[in-house]
Structure formats: structure tokens, C-alpha cells
Amino acid sequence: MNFFSRARKFEFVLFKIICSFSGRLSKLFGKSTSAKRNKVIFHDFPGGAENFELISRFCYDNGKIDINPSNISLLYSAAQFMEMNNSVSGNCNLLEKTKKSIEEISYWTWPDLLVALKHCQDLEQVATSSGILEKCLDSLVGRLAMTSEASPCASTSSPDSSGFRLSCDTRSTESLKNSISRATWCFEDLSVLSPNLIEMLIKSMVSRKCNHVIISRFLFYYQKAKFYTASSDEKRKVSEIVIDMLYTLDPSSISCKSLFGILRVVPSLNISKSSRNKLESLIGSQMDQATLDDLLIPSPYGTSYLYDVNLVLRFLKAFLHGGGWQLSPMRMKKVASLVDLYIAEVAADPCLKSSKFLALVVALPDSSRDSWDELYHAMDIYLEVHAGLSEEEKVKICYALNYEKLSAEACIYLSQNANFPSKSAVQALTSQQLKLKNLLQGTNNTKLYMDSPCNFTKTRGKGKKDEANEQIVLYSGRLDISADNEKLRAHLQGMQWRVMELEKVCKKMQTQMAKIMKSKVSSHSTARSLPRLC
Predict the structure, then answer these.
(1) What is the C-alpha separation between 332 and 311, in angstroms, rounded?
(2) For the chain, is the Cβ count within 10 Å smaller at the N or the C terminus?
(3) CA-CA distance, 212 to 179, in Å (whole number)?
């Protein structure tokens, strides 16, 4: 910057006035009286020519200037640059005046704080070192964390806002709803801040334990607001900071749907691997909140398969490893149900490799499913679409199937399904045979208990036991496990319709046994209460 040309070529006598306030200029020119020698160029003057004009006015008015939120950061940085301190100008020094104004930031209004923060963005390094930025953010977060019903100030974007409350310790669902509804008015005001300032703001809010639900909602709002006018690089930076800040929050406070919204826009932005891993981890931790449409994400460009199966596998890995003690059986079963629907959807993809299909099938533990019927149907679709698979590949896929958790109907269909290997048919029928044997054995054990000498109410239940025995005789014969598939299938089909009746008999026996035991306990209690006659 040319000192004279861009500062309107001040007269030498006026230049000496500026020197009387600036330690830096005094050192450069000393006691020189020649105007020809007094020329200096500042290439890095804070705020440029406009800010130098503010400094000049301060000097000409003998140390008088209006310090306000819009110029405090500029004046402070220029005062430091020009060394305008006590050693040069005594009490009328600009550095001291700006410092005093900085100490009064806590009394500023909400619009004043926003104005100051906007100007700090251009001089972030100076504003940080001077403490202006820290004090402004601290005061801003303090307003956001207020628990009073009244708004701390009038919003610059919502002048009709009547109140604001961002509770750091919400004690009920109703108060949480009130907090959220009252807190969203400031979103538009804060969206004008740079990504770096937003990062500092969120860290400060988290340290003060402000409501994570509101913080997450603001971050999603901020990303959408910035994307309207931002360049590709700016979008990438905004996305990375939003993801990094979301990662510091409680996952349960973050909208799963909004996370998938970010996931769908970041592939084209080439965000860092660290941020992408954090985003996948956040989504994985909330897999029980996802839907099938959320998971049906197209595969990356250049791949042959339809959907991004690898991404879903990473989600499941994050769900299992990141859930810890929070992985309740209910959450596991919900995710398993969703994954079964997803597998059935991607099974029809002719380009899906058997290794990826199998990885999806075994991704969750066996305990997460009560029934494997849905997976059987998915396997059926996959084997039908991929008819060219070798017998070895088919056996490997079917090996993951839990036959014990297949319904009798599914086992019969499997035994007749030409898509499945013959080994699978035998295994399915054998599994059902063992189930029936165990059921029969359990029924016989119940019968033996009811026929025991300890049961002094035997006559009372004789009629119902005879009824049960008549039904049990119908299928109590021993099945030959070594028989061929057709014989097993015939046996199974012949007995399937009787299983329901057998279960009813078992339930009746259990009910009868409970009554008998109750009657027995009552009788013993009565006997003990009678006096001994001999």
C-alpha cells in the first residue's frame, strides 16, 4: 500500500500528527524534518486503505473516535500494527481504548455480537490473538444457553420473535419441545458465519452442555443454507466441519434421515476419509432408525452392481462395534428385519457376487433373528437369478442358513425347491424331524409326570390324558433318518397338519398340571393346619 497515494497524500505537517500517535512510524522516521524522505509502503496493513483512514481520523481528532462492533476488530488490529500505545501518545492511545471496549462485549446486544463476529471473519488471526473472537463467542453462547423465557435480544432475521429458550438441562419432553421451537429463530442469524467460526461456536456450545438436539438441527440447517451459493470447495469444507461437529454429539440426538441426506450429497465433494468414516459411523449407530429406501444407495460410479452393498456392510459393522451395551435385543431384531428386506431387494441384482451376498447374510449374529424364513426367500431369489452358480457356491451360501429357525412350511418348500442343493433339502427335512421328535419327547415327559404316584389327583385328569394319548399314538412311531428324501418328505407332509393339534394338547396338559400342582399345595397347607388326633 502506497502511504501517500492511497492515503490521499497527506501534508507533512499532518503526517507528523500521525507519527505522534504511532510508535512504528516514529521509529521509522525518527526526528526527520524533510518531507521528501517520508515515504513508506505497507503491503500488509490490516483492513487496507479504509482502515487506515479510520486511524487517521483518530489522530486528527486528537484521540477521539467512535468504537463500535463494526470497527472494533479493525481498530484493534491497526492499533497493534501501528504500535499506538501509552509509550507514544500517553492516555490518548487507540490500543487502550479498544481493549476497554473489548472488556464490555458481554453487555452488547445480540445484533452487535453478530456484526462483530462477521468482521472478525476477515481478521480471524488478529481477532483470535486479541481475545475479541473468544469473548464474542462466549457471550453469544451465553445468550443461547439462557434458561429465561424471554429472548436475549431481538433477532436480526426474525424481528417478530417473542421469546427464546435453549435449555442446557431439559427435564421433560414438553420443555424440550419448547426449547427447540424457541431456539430455531437464531439459525438464520448464525448461518452467515464462516465454517471456522461455526466450528468454534459448536465446540463452545458442547462444552457448556447445551441441548444436542438443537445443535444437530442447526448444523443440518447451516449446511443447507451454505450449499445454495457455495462453490464446490466451500461445500466440501462445510460438509467436513458439519460432520466433524455432529460426531461430537450424542448419536441419539441426531436425525438419521438427515444423516442420509448428507450421505447422498458428499460423494461428489470428495470429502476427507476421516469425515466419511465419521459419517458412516454415525449412520451405523442408528441403523435401527433407518428404512429400506435409505439403504438402497446406488453403487459408486464404475461398478457393475446396482446398490452399494459394501457401504451397508460398513454400516452394520459400525452398528455392532459402536453400540456397546446399548445393543438391546429389540434393536438387534429391528435391524435384522431391515437387513432381511435389503437382502431380498439386492438378491435380484444379476451382478451381485456370491461373496457379497453371503457377507450380508452372516453380517448379524444368529440371535438377532427369531425366524429365517425371510432369508430363505431371499436366497431363493438369488439362486434363481444366479442359476449359473456352481454346486459348491450354492452349498456355501446355504450353509449359512439356520434350518432350525425355519418354519415347517418353509422347510417343505425348500425340500421341493430345485434351486437349492440336495444336501440342503435333506438338512431341512432332518431338522424338522428332530423338532417333531423333541416335541413328542416333551409331550411324553409331561405324560409320565401326570402318571406318577405323586399325583394323587390322577383320576381327576384321566379323561383328558386318555384324549391326549389317543392323539399321540397317531405319530409316535420312530422315523428312520437314513431314509431317502421322498420318504422323509412324505412323513413330514403327513405329520405337519397334526403339529398344531399336538401343540394344543401340550398346552392343555400344562394347564392341567398347573391346576394339579396348585391343588396339591392347597391340600398340603390344609392338612398341616388340622390338629393331630393320635
Answers:
(1) 19
(2) C
(3) 11
